[in-house]
Design goal:
Strand content: 5-15%
Largest sheet: 11 strands, mixed
Radius of gyration: 56 Å
Shape: rod-shaped
Helix content: 40-55%
Number of strands: 39
Oligomer: single chain
Distance between the termini: 60 Å
Length: 1475
Amino acid sequence: RLGIFLWLLLFFSTKIEHSCALESPIEQLPTFKPQCFDEVYTGRPNFSPGLEKFLSFRNTIKLEVAWWETSYMLTHAFSILLTEKLGYRTEINDFTKMNYTQFAMENDITNASFANALTSSTMHAYMNLYFGTTSMNPELWPATGSIAKKYAESQVTKTLPNIVQYPGTLGPTARNGWFFDPSSLSEDLKADPFTSLAMIEEKGGFTPGHANAFTLSHELGVGNFNIAYHTFADGVASGLNCSGETKLGEYLGGQSDCEYWRWVPLDDEGNPICCTYRNQEEGSCDTALTPCFAMVVGDPGWLSPDEKNEKRALMSGLPIEIVYGDTKSFLETAEGIGKPFLFYWWEPDLFIDGNTFVRVNMLDEIYCAHEVLKEESVYSTYGFKHDESSANAPCEFYKDTLEKGTHSPDALYFSDAFYLLQQFTLDFDQIWQLANFTNNSTIAALADEIISANPNAALSEVPDSDMDSYYGNESWNETDRTERFKMHLSYNLGACAWLKENEALWKEYIVPDEFIFNECLIVVCIALGIFVWVAGQSMHFFNSTGYKVLLQKALDALEQFTIAPVFVGKVNQFESIEMTPLESSQFESMKNKSSSSKVPNISFCSTLISALGDEDFIEFTVTSSERSDDANKGFFYVTIYDGVFRSEVPNSRSKESLMQFGRDYSSPQLSTSSIASENNDVFCESSNFKEVEVINYGRTLKLPIALPKGALTLQLPLLTNKLYCSVREAHAIIESGHKYGDEDARAITSDIPVLTFNVHTARRFPNNLEAQKSKGDDDDMLTIVGIWKILNAFGKDCFRVNQVRWQFFSYQVAHLILSMLDTFVWSLLMTFLIDFGLSLKKTDWCLMVALSYLSIEMIRYHFSLHYVNGDYNLKVYLESVLLRKFVFLSAGDVSQIPDHESIFRVAALTDVGALINEMWTPLHNILIQLYRVIGAFSFLLYKFQGQLYLTLIKVAWIVPLGFIGFASVYMACRVPRGFAIGVQEDHLEVIIFSSMYTILHNSRIIRELRQKMDIISNHFDKLWYKIDGGTFERMYHCLFNTWFLQTISIVIAAMLYGMASSMIQDWTGDTNNVTVGQYLVSIGAIRQLLAGLVQIFVLFSSVLESTSKIKHIADLVNFETSLERRLRNHHGIETDEGYFYRDHEPTNPCLNEKDTHMAEGEEYVLVIDGATLDYNQVDPKAPQYVFKNLELVEHRSRKSRKCLPRGGIIGIRRTDDGASKVLLNALSHEDICQKGKIGFSPDLYVARADTSKSALYMNETLWQNLVMGVDCAAFKKYQVQTKEWMEFQNYRRRITPRHLYKLCKRIGLNASIIGKNYSPAFGEISMDCCEELMDSNQVIRIRLVQALLQRPDVLVLDGVGDEMEQSEIKEMVDIFREFLDYKLDFIDDDAEKLAVGGKVKKRTIVWVAYQRTIQDQLKSDEIVLVQTSQSQFSMCGKDTAFTNIAHVTQKGESLVSAKSFNALSSKSSKSFRGR
């Protein structure tokens, strides 16, 4: 498209140029010329006229010829040199036969009298140079063309130089004069011809009838004077002042006759001094008058007023009548008469030399300096009128020292041609030799030969218009055309021959201009290559699958947002699972094998192992129901996978939280620790299993189903990952051999098929900056060194983020290239553009710079599209670090951080954004500005290498170094203040978010207290506190820093501008100063250098000041959670090899927990063994315990218990002191004990129902809230690809709106939420819409539906029934009993199919409620737990659980009161206080 546009532009510009051009009356000489030299210059490009105009490139030089031979020959000689030796096109024009007055008026000559005075070809030559119609002229006659020359000089002003320049003289001196042909004189006079008018008169030349008398005027008659080519029309010549009636007039002191084309001097009475031609014709000649002698002048308009022949005839006092007409035809007439006559001509000219005419000498100019002629203003001041006492000697014509002329605006386009013209000179003999080549017979023969070979050349080269113009529309024929063509061709051939014979005159001055158009073609190819590459990459990028997939995901998410705001982008796991395994023979075989009675059970001991990053490996145990080491019983496989098992967003782009193989862990192996040595040694000593096979690229261990003593301890080696992540996850899965191609593999079952590894980091953020961490006081950081250390540590962590290092360095390399292009390369190009392209109007350099600019901008676009600085990756990473930290906080951890939601929101939204915008992006800009400074400085050194003594270069050295020193000291003093402002802004921003949180979450109390306007006004004031004390303060601080340094750079730049005249060259070649282009570009480079330094310091200040944001984030991220504190306090073990690890499984509830008080074969539901929970994590010396060495004690026997058996309802008496709440949190791992063991059995799936709205997604639909737990329940409960796993999938697919509506109806959900009657769309209502309709009971009922749909093994009821009527509680208990007995409608329709290994797990309900709620609902054999102290829960029957025993204390310990529980977080961390 671009090519078509440029072609159309050139086409129409050419058409417009042709259509707008006037039909020129100028005769153009033929362009058909044979090549003169064998070697011609081809280095100058030859574009079409349209393209030349478009590019402003001048390649055509216009030359001019007059009608005499030397002008023709000299012009043709220059045309040959310009064409063949310098590569130009030439256009030769002839202005002789045109109406020049009209031409001058068309070229803005408004003075009509001056235009009429431009009558000679010598005047035309000067004016054509002035108009620009001619670019150069090697032969100018300054005397005869003085009028035009003076006009051009008169237009010169102070600001407008002379358009016409004169590069020296040509060499020969020319002069007009009077001549006569002495051939008809006597022999003695021929030998000594007349040399003056006095001698002619003395010898009888002006005596009628004398033998030596000259020709009389009436003897010549009227010549063929064609008025069409002169300044006359219709027989009346305005220049001769003739009357229209008499055709007579007065002109220059004489009488002009426009009928017979004569002029005669008048005497004092106004009468002709002799008998004129008119008198002779009319017969009115006075006998006393002497007949007039003829003086032939070709044209009265050729000469300037000071050179007029009429004036000289008047001065002579002789009876002379000037005859106007063709001199050569009059000579032929006089030859017939046999008498000579005076005529006007000039030298040098072949006409004079070839005929041996005699020149008449006149009085030299030095004797004519008398101002006596005052009759007319046009009279010459250099002459006096002849009187009777003086000799007949009028003043001589001026000497014309021929000069060369140029049209100065063309000098920039044709510098080599102008140089040739300036240096070219000739002497008189050489120019005569040149002119005489027209008489060369060889040349004439060669011209005839060329014409014969090209018979049609004359017709094409000499059009009819030129012939009509030359012959004055008179009749002409083809012979005339051929002769005229031959004449021009002969001139060209003669000039060629002369040039070959006289190479010494011109050869050394042939210095063609050098062009870089070939290099431009290379740049064009490079630019096209860049364009193709950039366009191809852009098309590939925008059309690539990756881009379209990500874009489509974003568009799909946008479309889904209104439907499911929380679950946008979430893939439904069951919809993405293919059911083909159900039809496979492998799975059918596996189902058949698993149906047999003896199916081994292979399980892990626990579902979760949490470890610290300072450990070298994690130990975990695999148990088997087989008790033999027989290898023939088959194999199973333990495979380690990255990340979370069955993540709800499996295709997440977040990889930081994943433990990745080879980066965070290596291949699993058998444990070699002392703890596991007993079992593992037996295994290793077995003759059948000397080595464990590691397959699947090192991720999988192949193990026998029959394990020695039923247990095997494995190790997962941990690797050091320097990238900070608070928690990383991986998981191990027990898999059947069918997956690995073992067709004979036995079917297996598993109670715990998946083991999750959570590795908590043991290092601080950023970069384990322990020694430099703040001690809680922001003032400790208010030093430039401290700020720099934190910034350095943070930068190291940033480079470890996925792809950030690569993006950082690739972005910097890209911008390094761009900076060098923008500074070094572009400054060089600008120097060339100014010094050559603009100053010398070199189109090739302009084109080169333009193409280079296009290439640079295309590279800039490509880099902008494909190179990013890693800010998005870093932003996502930092936000995920904060949010990951938040979600891993326990309930006790949250209580230690006042206003925790606002603080984390400020950190995740504001602080992270500020770090990206005020630290990361400025850091890149600092480096970019540094590159620009280096590029600018390199340019100055390169451009002025060898000229380091220049003042400009000294300034370029001294100024930046001094600026750097001053700015460094200044910014070092200002940065701590900026850091303090950042800390202050953080505090104010937390106030804003806290206020906003209050407004959004406490709208009801605001309305009740009628404080709506007060609260909003108060928030408005807080906004302005933050703006004034934070935003504006930071802006003013940065603005002052910027403009203080900017002012210094501006002053320096202003001084450099003011010193310009002392640094710029006084003349071309001045080595002590610089050119204009060098100065301008150098000043630009120095300004770039200073601006870059200013930006570097200002941006560096911003980077350092943003450390407050790093510190804020670090305070949150480095907060030690309960779990991290528990792990850190757990003493580790160091092996003999120097490896460090902790034995985690004994500290967690395990599959094989045993309690001596439990019956044989009875399994436990929960374990409590010495649990200690402390809510004050800040000050370990002053713990505030909720539980301390907690244990279960049977009320009657006072025996300690460790576990509770499964089945039925376990009641926990709810108290107002919060202990029961904390116990439930600890069992559910929402609170972490610092010591001991507490929790549910790991093989049980637990679901919880409570009154908390935070467990509901209020901006999602009711359907999504009800079924969201079912989607992942199967993956948490069953081994993948087992019968139970598949059956649970089928169950999930059977959940329909009708089934769900029935369940909600039975649970007792309000009709205002689900409707009175069933509707398929009942679940599409948004929870936000029914929030006001939900009391705590409705929330509990929704949570119950959520829990029941998941088919949990343990159902935890927190506060269920506490606010219900007894009848409602009774209905609920009936549902609970059905659930315990696997008889709940729809939920348990296929319960028998879900038995793992043919064994149905007992369901258990843990019910925390007030006495009034559960006292009458429990059976007599069901257990109730009642806290009796900080270290004891009593196990009672329902009959004794609610008696005074509940209030008994032991050993003086008091229960935790509500008041003390609420004050547990009173000693919160100072680092969080006020944020």
